[in-house]
Amino acid sequence: MNPRLAVAALASLAIFIARADDLHPPKAGKVEIMHLQDVKPGMHGVAWTVFRGTEPEPVPIEIIGTWKGQLGPRQDVILAKMGGKAERTNVAAGMSGSPVYIDGKLVGAVALRFSVFSPDAICGITPIERMLEIEDFDQSRPSDARTPDRAPSQRSEAAAIPGELLGKLVAAGASGSLPNRVPVMTPIDTPLVLSGFSQASIDAFQPLFQQMGIVAVQGGSSASQLSMKPSGDWRHALNPGEAVSGILVSGDMSATGMGTVTYNDGKRVLAFGHQFFDLGPLDMPMAKSDILMVLSSSFQPTKFGNATEVVGALRQDRYSGIMGELGAEAPSIPVTVKLRSHGANGQVFKQKELHFNVFVHQKWTPFLMMLTLFNSLQQMNE
User: Fold this and answer.
1) What pLDDT sits at residue 21?
2) Rounded distance between C-alpha atoms, residue 88 and residue 301, angstroms
């Protein structure tokens, strides 16, 4: 081998190792951002996401370019190719929000993927500028806020839209299947993951899930008996790249949605890079998560994990991401269900108690109560 080539190769290797040594997981605090106009094709950066446990790992990123108006008027998306472990796993559900840095500057969040069966780990990045807009919204709600079934009738008549279609359009977080098409670039799934629920219960409620725009699956991220009060170490929780969960139900049954933290200024965090259920202002328990594994697939790659400790509350669920407040407490409804089995003479011969907490929301609470009670009864041996 040519000695000069050998020296050059060793020098390049030394530079690569030195750069790798400088790659430390990002921490909370103010960070310099890279504006969309400064992002150019061919740039190389790094994304951070958790593949196992709680510690985020670096994923090489190569910028392909900016896709203009992909998500709406002036709603541009940065296209990039992921390397490293992501080449094997593909762009997985749960990676939503993985922060992307170029030259130490925060570019945005991995938030979209190409439709199924793409052999390449191509992702769409939501620019951080759009996510930071979420901080400008307050907690105010309309004084006459109504659930979709109580929308003023004249509004329906003026729109001249069939009631069933209108219900789907105004349902919180509705995405549904209207119109019937297959988009090229879609938000990475943040499914409502149900643990402790039977498939029969999920099937029975499938029409309601569809009406609310929900992708419901079994397994994945679960939340056992969590305290709804923030844990003592919330000040050091949810650094960029770590996994975060929104808790709708916790306890003997759980319903959670899991993604990745993009930004943490020490008090407020931004995550996902796209909407959760597009609820606007909300109060939902926010928890740390532990990742068990990432299922590799060209069809539906998914992270599996467990919510571990509540560390705050989600305050905003907007089009370009979610925002949570560390150390804040979201109200929840503690529920105890006592199930009794009776013999032929009416004597109780078996009793079971279930305990869980339910997210407080004018649309979601009744639905979640109905789902959990149905599931409790459905699993009785009687």
Assistant:
1) 40
2) 10
The answer to whether residue 129 scores a pLDDT higher than 50 is: yes
Does 122 map to a domain? yes
- Residue 317's pLDDT band, with cuts at 50, 70 and 90, is very high
CATH at residue 69 = 2.40.10.10
pLDDT of 19 > 50? The answer is no
Inside any domain, residue 113: yes
Q: HEC string of 137-159? A: CCCCCCCCCCCHHHCCHHHHHHH
Residue pair 184/69 in contact (Cβ under 8 Å)? The answer is no
* 5 band by pLDDT with thresholds 50, 70 and 90: low
DSSP class per residue in 60-108: EEEEEEEETTTTSTT--EEEEEE-TTHHHH-S-BT-TTEEEEETTEEEE
Instruction: Say whether 163 sits in a helix, a strand or coil.
Output: helix
Residue among 164, 22, 224 at smallest CA distance from 104 = 22
Interatomic CA distance for residues 274 and 5, integer angstroms = 47
Q: With 80 as the cut, is the pLDDT of residue 165 above it? A: no
pLDDT number for residue 13 = 44
Of 192, 211, 234, 189, nearest to 330 by C-alpha is 234
- pLDDT, tens only, 29-38: 989 999 999 9
Domains in the chain: how many in total? 1
Range of the domain at 51: 22-131
Taking the alpha carbons at both ends of the chain, their separation in whole angstroms is: 78
Cα 145 from Cα 139, distance rounded (Å): 13
Q: For residue range 62-86, what is the model confidence (pLDDT) as tens digits?
A: 999 998 866 666 678 999 999 999 9
In a domain, 378, yes or no: no
- The Cα 13–Cα 20 span in angstroms is 10
Pairwise CA distance, residues 326 & 45, whole Å:
28
Mean pLDDT of 248-258: 89
**C-alpha–C-alpha distance, residues 12 and 21, integer Å:** 14
Residue 99 lies in a domain: yes
Whole-number Å distance between alpha carbons of 215 and 94: 14
